[in-house]
Specification:
about 230 residues; alpha/beta; Elongation Factor Tu (Ef-tu), domain 3; Rossmann fold; 2 domains; five-stranded parallel sheet; 12 strands; globular; Siderophore-interacting protein
Length: about 230
Amino acid sequence: MNSKLDNINSGEIISSKKITPTSWHIKLKVPFYIELDMDRNPGYIIPLLSGGEEEADSVIIRSTLWNYDIVRNTVEVIIHAQKENEIWLEKLSSGKAIQYLDPEEIIIQGLNADQYYLIGNADAQAFFHQFNRSLPFTSTVNSFIYSKQTGEFFPDTDGSYPLNYHIIYPFSPERVLHLFKKDFVRENENFIILLYCEQEVNTLFSNHFKKEWGATNSQIKISNFH
């Protein structure tokens, strides 16, 4: 690495599996408790290093937290394959050591609502699964997860499919919004919207909710993953 990185820890890979054409599920055994404020913010990015700290060509791979077992000290993350990490992902195997950095918050929840609207592309699934699990049973969750192609959706850790999925083809940001509007209307004023889409789609939805639903900035949470 060209620059010094602080708080580097090392875990052991328990399993590594490709679960969709572009998504990998990695389960790690970590040496000690990771401090995560899941009540305040159930969404985290776990930065991983593709090589050792001293390796010049090592890069940071941003993975999405899917599940954290405090009792067993295991962390499950989802990594979305890209050109710069595909070869590295193929070489991962159980028993190998992997280095990780301190977690980064995706969206600070900080608010309570009667209804939540989870809107995102296929990359949002791990975060939305984790977020959905963190909510009280009294909350109503409305979800709209989309992909440009088939085969990109995967169930939660218990094998269930609690989210609603849509294939958008041919794809355009306008078609995503159009299909959402066919399925959902504002039911009350106590809602929070989570957007985890491409930037253009995030902007389109944000403007729609402010104009048509009277949403305030505090009711619209846009992920900082990208």
